[in-house]
Design a protein that fits this description.
The complex is a heterodimer of chains A (301) and B (461).
Chain A (H helix, E strand, L loop, with lengths): L1 H41 L2 E2 L7 E2 L3 H8 L1 H31 L7 H13 L2 H11 L7 H8 L15 H26 L3 H9 L4 H12 L1 H16 L3 H7 L13 H11 L3 H29 L3
Antiparallel strand pairs in A: 1-2
Helix pairs in contact in A: 1-13, 2-13, 3-7, 3-10, 3-12, 4-7, 5-11, 7-11, 10-13, 12-13
Chain B lengths: L1 H21 L1 H6 L5 H29 L3 E7 L8 H11 L3 E7 L5 H10 L7 E4 L2 H10 L6 H7 L22 E13 H7 L10 H11 L9 E4 L5 H4 L19 H12 L6 H7 L3 H6 L3 E7 L2 H11 L8 E5 L10 E10 L7 H12 L1 H9 L9 H8 L8 H5 L5 E4 L7 H16 L5 H17 L1
Parallel strand pairs in B: 1-2, 1-3, 5-6, 8-9
Antiparallel strand pairs in B: 3-8, 4-6, 4-7, 4-8
Helix pairs in contact in B: 3-15, 5-6, 16-17, 19-20
Classes of the chains: A mainly alpha (301), B alpha/beta (461).
Chain lengths: 301, 461
């Protein structure tokens, strides 16, 4: 009798708890979990979205790695991430430290640094393409020719500079956001630590190296993961900068997500698009796991 | 320890979130997943039964109960002919209401493909924007084949001057065109007058065209005059090669495009036309280039005519207000008047709730009455005839010289992209190599070799 009552109460408690989770979980299941499971199934099938699905085993994956557009996309995405992650991190940290000092018009400069992040991508990409135009009259090319005495570059229009242009743009666009995260991290560092360091006779550089950096480790960890994941998801910037007026994204600039879009909605090969999405998932998962391994050194308990 | 757990959880959430973003390819397809299984048997029955069973019913429904047709299209407010077409039809069929659904212009074919994938769409009539879009939908099996309806109603396809033969998918016709635009050469008479050069004519070879473009070019910095202008599309250059009637863009060999690429590349080097790389990254629209008044000749589709006329009236294109058109130049030894064409067509989805009324509407829009209405708005209908062309030429703002009036009468019209099962994949290869050539990244020969190889691989699959 007593145990039955306890059971009932426990059950009711559990139901109440489930009902709190339900709205969120149903949304997650319908819009996220379901599609994820479907993507896993579709990766092993050939399907155009309407005719019956046909299972083909690992053929989609074999075809992917034989496809030069996919391998180019894979390579470009990795190259993009390798260059974007560390440079954005350094620039954001530098800006945060600079704008954490008590300088004049500090709020103004913070807004300036944050502005690219909130500005419309379409608008700033158009401005960027004007500055970095392949024509000799463009601002950057004038700078190269007159100040640095070098040949003008074709920027987004040439295969050897298109990724450079995209990386530069991406750093500039996203630095403000990560700067804000670093600013929050910097303000979380206790003044006592700096005071103690001063008493021990530490200089500015030593303070940065032995106090600021270690204290920012959790922030850096967070920023690295966020940045890496967002780098692998890059799509819009490439389309805006390299697609141009005819929307043709070449092998020199194509990235994984763009390839997935193209396969799925231009060629209606949902199977091979899902397979490519799984490859992307595997990469992001692997990178994240490696970073968690390294986290032991990162986090300071 | 606790901190570690939290950050671990946080990381996992991020990974999942990233997947959700990346997996959007799968997401949209998800709702459709169950549909085909349930709908498949129905879809199979329909084409066989439809024509016989539905024909008699057609008269009943058109005369009786009120029907609302849903019509998928793009640029509802910017396009001048939708409403007149609807008014024309509903005047004779007062029980029919037609509701326009605007799916947006930029990714119309993609959105339409997604909408029709679930078999739960309720469109009765859909506009087909381009041939790759048609092929995709026909292969998906979401469009009703029209052949038996056409045969039953005795529609003479000859009125479409052979265009309908180029859009058959697996020997079946899934659309009826109502609009056909042909490519012509626009020119700015002021530029020619200033240079003291005679206007282009309706009978020019490509060599004569090149010579003419060079004559009117002025490379003085700050006061440049460009003899020719090519928009960044592949079609503006690559497709000059198919006008001799001996080649097609889905052949698998592209050596015939070489002389045209060389002609334009040389023009680009000599400042006769603007640089492709700049045009592409700055996104300069061909109309804006022409309005500036320093472009001599522009090869473009006839869809630009009504736009140009209205922009001249607005004053935006004042520098180009003295304009004319001539027929596309031609290869040596080919009859003048061969040109490229694009069509806009109507189709009926297999899932359409009111197929009979929809077919009646399609017949009207694509037929002679629809053509009259189209011409009245300054647009070129698919059912073309000299009478209809002269009606367009009488429009206010159309150039008054005889050559411009005659330029609309094409002797042969080749589709920019004929129907081919792999057309969207072929386009990817051709676009990429076009980009490489025009950016001067690869030589014409290398790029053509890459086209041959890439397209053959696609066709051989």
């Amino acid at each position: 009798m007593n145990t039955q009552g306890a059971k009932k109460r426990k059950m009711r408690q559990a139901l109440v708890a489930y009902s709190f989770i339900a709205p969120n979980f149903i949304g997650f299941a319908v819009f996220t979990l379901g599609p994820i499971i479907l993507a896993f199934i579709m990766a092993f099938a050939e399907w155009d979205g309407n005719n019956p699905m046909k299972f083909v085993g690992l053929k989609n994956f074999a075809d992917l790695f034989a496809n030069d557009r996919f391998t180019a996309a894979l390579k470009n995405t990795i190259v993009y991430s390798i260059f974007t992650v560390p440079f954005t991190l350094i620039v954001a940290l530098g800006l945060a430290i600079l704008l954490n000092q008590k300088i004049r018009a500090r709020t103004f400069f913070r807004t300036v640094a944050f502005f690219p992040y909130v500005a419309s991508l379409v608008a700033v990409a158009a401005v960027w393409n004007m500055l970095f135009t392949p024509a000799k009259g463009g601002l950057m090319n004038q700078l190269l020719m007159n100040v640095f005495q070098t040949a003008p570059l074709k920027w987004a229009a040439a295969p050897n500079t298109v990724m450079l242009t995209i990386v530069l743009f991406s750093i500039w666009k996203n630095m403000g956001y990560y700067m804000v995260i670093y600013l929050a991290g910097l303000q979380g560092i206790s003044e006592d630590l700096y005071e103690a360091a001063s008493l021990d006779g530490a200089g500015a550089l030593q303070k940065f190296w032995y106090v600021t950096l270690p204290q920012l480790k959790p922030t850096t960890f967070f920023v690295t993961i966020m940045l890496t994941i967002s780098c692998f998801k890059i799509y819009d910037i490439v389309y805006m900068l390299a697609g141009g007026s005819n929307g043709v994204v070449n092998k020199s600039a194509i990235v994984l997500v763009y390839y997935i879009y193209e396969e799925a909605f231009r060629n209606w090969k949902l199977g091979s698009a899902s397979a490519a999405a799984l490859v992307l998932f595997a990469i992001v998962l692997a990178v994240t796991l490696i970073q968690f391994r390294g986290e032991k050194n990162y986090a300071n308990d | 320890m606790k901190k570690r757990l939290i950050s671990m959880l946080m990381g996992m959430t991020l990974v999942v979130a990233s997947l959700a973003g990346c997996g959007s390819a799968a997401e949209t397809a998800a709702p459709a997943a169950e549909a085909p299984a349930a709908e498949a048997p129905k879809a199979e029955e329909k084409p066989a039964e439809a024509p016989a069973a539905e024909a008699p019913a057609a008269e009943e429904t058109t005369n009786d109960a009120p029907v609302t047709l849903k019509w998928a299209l793009w640029d509802k407010d910017a396009t001048v002919y939708y409403q007149p077409l609807i008014d024309g039809y509903t005047a004779a069929h007062p029980n029919v209401t037609i509701e326009m659904v605007d799916l947006g212009s930029t990714d119309y074919s993609t959105v339409l493909g997604t909408q029709l994938s679930g078999s739960d769409s309720d469109f009765d009539v859909v506009t087909i924007k381009d041939v790759p879009g048609l092929v995709t939908l026909a292969n998906k099996g979401v469009l009703e084949p029209l052949d038996s309806l056409i045969a039953q109603d005795g529609i003479d396809l000859a009125a479409y001057s052979g265009i309908t033969d180029q859009v058959k998918v697996k020997d079946a016709l899934y659309e009826l065109p109502f609009r056909r635009d042909i490519w012509v050469l626009f020119y700015n008479k002021d530029v020619f007058d200033k240079a003291g050069v005679d206007y282009p004519t309706n009978d020019m070879t490509w060599e004569q065209y090149d010579e003419l473009a060079r004559k009117i070019t002025d490379t003085t910095p700050g006061a440049e005059v460009y003899g020719a202008h090519y928009h960044t599309w592949r079609s503006t250059i690559q497709l000059m090669g198919i006008l001799d009637g001996k080649h097609s863009i889905v052949d698998g060999t592209y050596d015939f495009t070489k002389p045209y690429y060389e002609m334009v590349l040389n023009q680009q080097k000599d400042g006769v036309c603007m640089d492709y790389a700049t045009l592409k990254t700055q996104g300069l629209h061909y109309s804006a280039a022409f309005y500036q008044g320093n472009v001599g000749m522009l090869n473009m589709g006839s869809w630009f005519i009504p736009t140009l006329i209205s922009k001249i009236k607005d004053g935006e294109a004042a520098a180009a207000s003295n304009w004319g058109i001539v027929k596309y130049p031609h290869a040596d030894g080919v009859e003048p008047g061969s040109t490229l064409a694009t069509i806009t067509a109507l189709a009926i989805p297999t899932s359409a709730p009111n197929k009979d009324v929809a077919w009646d509407f399609v017949k009207f829009v694509s037929g002679a009455e629809g053509a009259e209405i189209m011409a009245g708005t300054g647009n070129t209908p698919a059912m073309s005839s000299e009478a209809i062309n002269s009606k367009i030429a009488e429009m206010d703002g159309f150039p008054t010289d005889a050559n411009s009036k005659d330029a609309l009468n094409a002797s042969h019209a080749y589709l920019e992209m004929p129907a081919n099962e792999k057309s969207s994949e072929i386009e990817t290869v051709l676009n990429e190599q076009h980009d490489n050539i025009m950016n001067e990244v690869s030589s014409v020969d290398d790029a053509i070799a890459a086209m041959n190889e890439g397209v053959k691989a696609i066709l051989g699959q």
